[in-house]
TrEMBL record:
Keywords: NADP, Oxidoreductase. This is NAD(P)-binding protein. One of its GO terms (molecular function) is oxidoreductase activity. Pfam families: adh_short. Belongs to the short-chain dehydrogenases/reductases (SDR) family.
Length: 300
């Protein structure tokens, strides 16, 4: 088969992957894409066992495996890694996807044109209502847990390199972190803690790429920066946008593609990164937003 044929470039035959937050939303889109395109096993993790069990049924091959765990607990991450160590002994792909939207900006408006500007006092009062713990929780799941998640699975990813089954073992083990367009946005929209967390985790990934290179660890790291995809987390914002469309406050100038992301968009992105096709990507950020960032004040 030609090395340039789609089967050779984009399949993920034989890999063992683990997707945190894989029971719902973007994580489930990712897990399904891997499971339906050759993965030997795709562990999906989250705190709710029933959600995971139902999600696992979505692969006809029985290769999505639910694994309950809380990524904000170091003990839980170590237990997840221990389970994979006993069952498989290696991991080819870790998708650190679990996340939280964190505290909103209170009634500070979303990124669409709003009627009334706030006074300094109103702005200040609104911002100060948010408990600091809400910021801490957001950073804990979106940044801190990603660091410990990577470290808990590091030896298994190393083993993944030694036992890579596909394409002569030349697709190196990888961590993919679900970041967000929020990492780059400056205009009003998602909360400040969420923005800071996604920018922070994006930079942390860049730092890990550099340090892993210096240490010769041979484990790649990349980020995905999705725009708006249907999920429990995104529902409120998507409803808001739908409403704004009706009143003419959002149109295709909001998302040039004129639609939210679909599971096929996420599947294409993850299959590119996880397969031979994306095996030269290391430290890359895959923006998948239908053009949303081009329509707003952003640092991309
Ligand atoms: N949807 C979008 O438009 C969008 C855009 C950009 C980025 N993202 C990012 O995409 C990722 C997935 O979000 P989503 O939109 O798909 O929302 P979602 O469906 O609400 O997914 C969040 C997942 O994370 C899991 N999770 C949350 N806290 C956890 C914890 N402490 N331990 C383990 N798992 C935990 C949840 O499962 P349990 O509650 O069962 O634990 C859930 O499966 C997030 O990092 C988010 O920031 C989403």
């Amino acid at each position: 088969m030609s090395g340039l044929a789609v089967e050779s470039l984009f399949r993920v035959d034989g890999i063992v992957a683990l997707v945190t937050g894989g029971g719902t939303g973007i994580g489930l889109m990712i897990a399904k894409a891997l499971a339906l395109n050759g993965a030997k096993k795709v562990y999906i993790t989250g705190r709710r066992a029933e959600v995971l069990e139902n999600a696992a049924k979505q692969s006809p091959h029985g290769n999505i495996v639910p694994l309950q765990g809380d990524v904000t607990s170091k003990e839980s991450l170590v237990a997840l890694a221990e389970h994979v160590r006993k069952e498989d002994g290696y991991l080819n792909l870790l998708v650190a996807n679990a996340g939280s939207s964190g505290p909103g900006s209170g009634s500070l408006p979303h990124g669409l044109k709003e009627e009334k500007k706030k006074t300094v006092k109103e702005f200040q009062e609104e911002a100060m209502k948010t408990p600091m713990e809400d910021w801490d929780n957001c950073l804990r799941i979106n940044v801190t847990s990603v660091f410990y998640n990577v470290m808990a699975f590091l030896d298994l990813l190393d083993e993944g390199n030694k036992r890579a089954l596909y394409y002569g073992g030349d697709v190196k083990s990888q961590v993919i972190v679900t970041s967000s367009v929020a990492a780059y946005m400056k205009a009003r929209g998602s909360g400040f803690a969420y923005r800071a967390s996604k920018a922070g985790v994006t930079h942390m990934v860049q730092t890990l790429v550099t340090v892993f290179g210096e240490y010769g660890l041979n484990i790649r790291l990349n980020t995905i920066a999705p725009g708006l995809f249907p999920s429990g987390m995104a529902a409120a914002f998507m409803n808001y946008v739908e409403e704004a469309k009706k009143t003419g406050r959002a149109d295709s100038s909001f998302i040039p593609e004129g639609r939210f992301g679909r599971e096929e968009d996420m599947a294409g992105t993850i299959l590119y990164l996880a397969s031979r096709a994306g095996s030269y990507a290391n430290g890359a950020a895959s923006l998948i937003d239908g053009g949303r960032l081009s329509q707003t004040s952003a640092s991309w």
